[in-house]
Amino acid sequence: MKECEIFSNLKVPCTSNIAVRLDGRNFSQLSRKLEFEKPYDLEFAEILAEASHHLFKEFNPRFIYIFSDEISLLLGEVPFAGRVEKIDSVMASFMSGAFTREIMGRERFSGLFDETASISFDSRVIPLSRKGVIAYFKERQMEAWRNCLNGYSYWTLRKEHSKEETMTLLHKKKSNQLHEILFQQGINLAQMPAWQRRGIGLYTRKVEVEGLNPLTHEKVTSQRNKITIDWDLPMFDEKFFNEKSII
Question: Is the full-model pTM beyond 0.85?
Answer without folding.
Answer: yes
